[in-house]
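for the recovery benchmark. tokens below, seq after
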């Protein structure tokens, strides 16, 4: 069924608010292709808030050295709190939107969390820079700390785009083919099987015969087998969970 045809109540716009020291980094990749198109057609909306606008002095300072010493600078809690509270007071839909702080020390992002966020009203994302954000504002504003992987970026802006893109592509009406979101990696706890398309021969490599057989049952079996092989080889952690029959939608 097409999402565009007969929806009873109009879907509320999924709202992303991004707090950043680099608003010029947005929309970035979020302005391109299907995600950008979905924004233009009103499925989701993006607001950026410049954290520096909430500096409390005329030098527009936002950071200071870590208490106790050490390298780098720390984002000041008073500035961060003012920026966060400005979203709370200016937005009618702050209610129900989680406040997420992107940091390599956060809980790893999963497709399960992405699905949950996509099914809610949207999110508010705080992009870290420098060494990090003062712990007191993380606690006082009950920020959910999320990491997009075990590596360190220069700041949270790219991570915010990753998170928002992962959510927006799941919103109703964004992906053309309803199937393409359900058969891919992670949706059933396995990595995706290999894909082929024309021509039949490419640099002496043929498309596996089974895929040209027209036998849908055989094709499904072959794909499942490939998914299992790939998952076993590349992601023993996912394979273990799959074998144990763990809920693949675990946190
Ligand atoms: N900021 C810097 N590195 C990050 C990561 N891996 N995930 C989320 N935010 C980050």
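predicted aa per position
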């Amino acid at each position: 069924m097409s999402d565009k045809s007969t929806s009873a109540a109009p879907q509320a716009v999924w709202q992303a608010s991004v707090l950043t020291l680099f608003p010029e980094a947005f929309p970035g990749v979020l302005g391109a292709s299907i995600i950008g198109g979905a924004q233009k057609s009103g499925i989701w909306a993006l607001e950026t808030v410049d954290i520096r606008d909430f500096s409390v002095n005329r030098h527009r300072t936002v950071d200071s050295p870590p208490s106790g010493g050490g390298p780098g600078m720390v984002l000041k809690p008073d500035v961060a709190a003012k920026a966060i509270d400005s979203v709370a007071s200016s937005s009618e839909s702050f209610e129900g939107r989680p406040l997420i702080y992107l940091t390599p020390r956060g809980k790893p992002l999963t497709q399960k969390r992405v699905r949950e966020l996509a099914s809610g009203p949207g999110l508010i994302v705080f992009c870290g820079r420098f060494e990090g954000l003062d712990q007191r504002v993380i606690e006082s504003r009950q920020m959910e700390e999320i990491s997009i992987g075990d590596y360190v970026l220069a700041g949270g802006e790219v991570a915010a785009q990753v998170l928002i893109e992962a959510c927006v592509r799941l919103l109703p009406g964004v992906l053309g083919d309803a199937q393409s979101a359900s058969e891919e990696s992670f949706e059933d706890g396995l990595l995706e099987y290999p894909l082929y398309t024309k021509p039949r021969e490419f640099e002496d490599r043929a498309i596996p015969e089974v895929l040209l057989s027209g036998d849908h049952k055989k094709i499904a079996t072959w794909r499942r087998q490939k998914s299992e092989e790939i998952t076993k080889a590349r992601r023993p952690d996912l394979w273990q969970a799959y074998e144990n029959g763990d809920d693949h939608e675990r946190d």
